[in-house]
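User: I'm new to structure prediction. If I give you an amino acid sequence, what do you actually give back? Let's try with this one:
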Amino acid sequence: MDEPTSNTALRRVHEAGQATAEYALVVLGAAAVAGLFIAWAAGTGRIGDLLNAVIDAVIGQVG
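Assistant: Good question. You get back a string of structure tokens that encode the predicted 3D arrangement of the chain. For your 63 residues, that looks like this:
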């Protein structure tokens, strides 16, 4: 395996690692927001209401 020897090659390797870390932070942030939303929705009973509305709409379209 060839190791990077020029400054440009070293910079590219560093930037690739930095992009991966930034992507991981964005995914963690999105997961945190989704977790908070799910916790809120579960506490208010809105998920059940949403599912009932979806099922009623599907049944209305089919029947």
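You can read the tokens as a compact description of the fold. Here is one thing that stands out. The radius of gyration is 23 Å.
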